[in-house]
Give the backbone structure.
Amino acid sequence: MSRIVLVLGSSAGGVARHVRMLAGGLVVRGHRVLVAGPLDTEKAFGFTGTGADFSEVRISDRPHPARDLRTVVRLRALTRGADVVHAHGLRAGALAALALTGSRGWPRLVVTLHNAVTAGGAIGGVYRALERIVARRAHRVLVVSPDIGERMRAGGAGRVDPAVVPAPPLAEPGRTPGEVRAEIAARLRTTAGPGPAGLPGRADPADVALRPILLTVARLAQQKGLETLLDAAAGPYKGDPVFVIAGDGPLREELQARVDAEELPVVLYGWAETADLLQVATAVIVPSRWEGQPLSVQEALRAGRPVIATRVGGVPAMVGDAALLVPPQDAGALSREIGRLLGDPALAARLAEAAVQRGRKLPDEDAALRSVLTAYGLPPSE
């Protein structure tokens, strides 16, 4: 039995779910697991419910020298006697690396990088420095996309491998398709007159049962490229689709103001059970500036939904021939592919079948656990 410390920073979604899955799987395999991270993340995701222990460690999204120094000291104490420290995210990885400075071989430090550095200026410089710390001090770096792997190797990482970050199995829908469409209709703004730029008037929300639903599941943040989605949403398109964005985040008010001002056929739905919305989705749209192994794309493939996504990060390798790919921040290209999909039922059917086939080949939670145990230098069946 090994003692494993999982370290993460603030997370409202995929990273925390992944850590919770690893914690539970490692406990079941007989390991002693401590999760170290912000208290709010424990409250939201319940790591202790997996049988793991939890200790509060403050790791925020942005550098904070005094707080970060206290975090390094605390991590040094928490990781004493551990066999493996597995940090998730660049900030968590760099702070864990600093905490382990001077250790002679053990604990073994593994860092999973779930996101690319997209910031510029002074903040971008700080993050690039953190990349160098992780590259030079981690025993193994796991990456969610090839471009991150190239950066880590260029920064001096000795061992870089693909990360396995599977989406959990889709839950059973809690509502019927009719109920979901009725909820979308209730939230859709009614447009009485002509749309923006002289486009035809939008159909009344009451007929949502007849309209295509184009679903995007994303945090409302800069990385997700939602301004490009709104550019493309103006249409016009065959069938007068409704764009449903499931998620929340710092850009919600800004996006809603634009939807209202331009009378766009867009519903900012808030967080919801993805399985409910996938029932009614004609296609899933991923307009992100960058993605690694997005859970929403994995869920769309498993549900057999056509995907239109940007050609970034780990997306092309994940989707193969089961998606239409466009350049990031190119509203014209995105609009053309949306129009092509809605106007060609045969294409939509082909993509749906390819999605089903691709979804069956996606790695599962057991594959993720075997992968990390190998990175830890532990037997997969221990």
In short: The two ends are 8 Å apart (CA to CA). The longest strand covers residues 3-8. The chain has 15 helices and 13 strands.
